[in-house]
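Might I ask for a little of your time on a matter of protein folding? The record follows directly beneath this note:
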Amino acid sequence: MSSSKHSKELRRLALSVLQPGFVGTEAPDWVLRDIRDGLASVVLFARNIVSPEQVANLTAQLRAENPSLIIAIDEEAGDVTRIESSTGSTRPGNFALGAVDDPELTESVARDLGRQLHAAGVSLNYAPSVDVNSNPDNPIIGVRSFGVDAGLVSRHAAAWIQGLQAGGVAACAKHFPGHGDVAVDSHHGLPTYDADLDEIAAQALPPFRAALEAGVRAVMSAHLLVPAYDPDLPATLSSRVLNDLLRKELGFDGLIVTDAIEMGAVTNRYGIEGATVMAVAAGADAICVGGENAEESTVGLLADALVRAVSAGDLAEDRLAEASRRVAEFAEWSTRLGQGVPVDPVSGDIGFIAARRAIRTSGPTQGVLPLTAAPHVVELVPSNNLAIGKETPWGVAVPLRERLPGTTFVRVHHQQLEADSTVLEKHALAPASGRPIVVVVRDASRNKWIGRALADLTAARPDAIVVEMGLPGSTAPGAVQIFTHGATAASGVAAAEVLIGA
């Protein structure tokens, strides 16, 4: 093979293992060109989505270049939503489903989502998170997990995967080998999972084994250090984790895709090019990129880095070719998966049914619920991790106002309290004088300022009704507490219904 021909083939291989995002609600020319040149996957984010019809047109435009193109999305159908980012998810997330603990319900919710994504032209969903949220202070997983028990997470991971794939869309179990017992957000730094081999086998790995048994054909690696397997390299860049543990010990023969390669956990130390090359060398087959770095230049940068690494002997050409082959095999399988699945509208009812079933209350409700007068609602707004879209609405005030005219509300941020210590008195307590007050929080036990503000509000108003839309944590003060186990739109509606006795 001539040098120029070999170079062109290497670039096709390099492009084929990238899964980039892009900006726009139509496919940019550079994406279409790269697909013609060998790009085998793209990823959709909230910025690419306006409506189901628009997404279907976009995916059709992309597939006109390659009918077996892998079109991925990061849609957990919970607090992390892309397809409903502008409205909030009409389905509850994993933690709510785990609280109900009905695998048939979990499968139904996931099948409903699968049908919606399939109708939009999506073939791979970077979900579910099968991490066991064993550390309550985990800043990145929380309600994205089905729960704190490995057995519960395992059965719901299997049900969710089977449901999604029955809807015609391939699932992807994440974040291998388990992101639930860390205290650092991997978007910014490198977390460490310090458990020994026995603890990892008992706590973190069972949901991944269950996912494999349920037929998952894609697994996403985690950007975290697991010293019991590799004291030096993050899991995404570690052959001991990806090859020895996932391939050999667990027997996984499908597609290994990385978490977003531009995340600080790997790029702070190795740079985006270095991390990409190291991930493929370690056994990753597909590089997810473009959540933040969504330019044409990024794809060129990473493709060039892979070609140079092969030429320099830092990456075996056989390894790159193997990764490309796995991508092609996955593309063929995921295309078949969607064939025969009807492209029809989803009802949307199952998500609200599930959200209602996930509601839990504590405290004496008699004489408190249902509300007999329009309340003042105070929503204490946390700073969310980067996985949760800033544009995604949440809360109880809006759906409650729709059902109970006269409801008023205020949203309070930490910065407001720091700038003005009288904010709670002026905007929360004073407008609630002589009326019911509802305080809505999200992870109050993990956000110290929210915990303090909540304590101040309930000290002044012991009759306050508290709605916790994150992890329940320790019992909150208040006359009555309502736990939604997630902050989706469906969960907000379910909480509003409880408040009015619907």
User: Anything to note?
Assistant: The longest strand covers residues 376-381. The chain has 18 helices and 14 strands. The longest helix spans residues 317-338. Residues 307 and 475 are 56 Å apart (CA to CA).
